Amino acid sequence: MSIYTKEGRLFIVLGCFFVANAIVAEFIGIKIFTVEGTLGLPPLDMTIFGFENLSFNMSAGILNWPIVFIMTDIINEYYGKKGVKFLSFLAIFLIGYAFLVVGLAIWVKPADFWSENNGFDMNLAFNSVFGQSLWNIFGSITAFLIGQLVDVGIFHRIKKYTGERMLWLRATGSTVVSQMVDSFVVTFILFYWNPNFAWTFDRVLAIASVGYFYKFLIAVLITPVLYIVHRIIDAYLGKELSQKMVAEATEK
Q1: Per the domain annotation, does 11 fall within a domain?
Q2: How do residues 51-68 score in pLDDT, each as one tens digit?
Q3: What family does the entry list (predicted)?
Q4: Nearest of 183, 180, 182, 173 to residue 153 by alpha carbon
Q5: Is the dihedral of CA 64, 66, 69, 70 positive or negative?
Q6: Closest by CA position to 130, among listed 96, 109, 99
Q7: Is 52 part of any domain?
Q8: Full residue range of the structural domain in which residue 32 is found
């Protein structure tokens, strides 16, 4: 596949969006925001597994994961399992590389005039924002990889029975299942197996359930966007090339 062909250029564009959003999500994920507060709504104060006052307090990394969902399904549709797996492993490698560079940036000694800025410790702020723990890195990367592999497997299993029909079923179906895996894996790694927290099983299960419900809702709501992107790509590729790529992706 040459970069000078339509399918080659499309793969580069989709891959760049996929990898860039995966990396950005890792770095902004340190911030926890309230969904209800952002929308101007009161906290839901849910009770799950006996734990009260649970609300949608989410990692900011969730903001651009819908784009990763869409990119995963579109790449699946046109480039098959190999395309998604290649970009998933590439994203994980580059996330690891990015964290190594950030670690180096944290390690180097800051200049005094920069660190002491109007009485504000810039170096402390920098280290606090970018210095995520190894458990966060391990948990997010592990959950991301497992979730992607589950997504691509379910996507093609559904497509095997539906053919090119019912894009919404294979796209949304694979996403809601893979995100369930992703949500529970990352939450249990960070809060159940991590000795710094060691929360009870029920508490972690409740927190993971809240996160998954939010992701499930987003996956359903963005389904129309998937169709819009699909039509734009079909228009760019042309009917004949588009159908050829979709057919070949099923076999890859």
Answers
A1: yes
A2: 888 888 888 888 887 788
A3: Belongs to the vitamin uptake transporter (VUT/ECF) (TC 2.A.88) family. Q precursor transporter subfamily.
A4: 173
A5: negative
A6: 99
A7: yes
A8: 6-251
Distance (Å, whole) CA 23 – CA 194: 23
Parallel/antiparallel/unpaired status of strands 51-54 and 120-121 = unpaired
> How many other β-carbons are positioned within 10 Å of the β-carbon of residue 109?
7
In a domain, 1, yes or no: no
Place of tokens 């990394």: 61
Structure-model confidence comparison of residues 118 and 234, the more confident one: 234
Closest CA to 96 of 140, 127, 150, 147: 140
* 48 part of a folded domain: yes
Nearby residues of 226 by Cβ (< 8 Å), 6 or more positions away: 70, 73, 74, 167, 168, 171
Tell me the average pLDDT of the chain.
Answer: 86
**Cβ contacts of 178 within 8 Å, gap of 6 or more:** 147, 148, 150, 151, 154
State the total domains in the chain: 1
List all residues 6 or more positions away from 78 whose beta carbon is below 8 Å from its beta carbon.
7, 10, 233, 242, 245, 246, 249
Q: What are phi and psi of 3, to 5 degrees?
A: -70, -10
CB 167 within 8 A of CB 227: yes
Q: Which two tokens stand for residue 48?
A: 């799950």
Helix (H) or strand (E) holding 32: strand 32-34
CA 201: distance to chain centroid?
24
Q: List, for residues 163-207, the tens digit of each pLDDT value.
A: 777 878 888 888 889 889 988 998 898 888 888 777 888 888 998
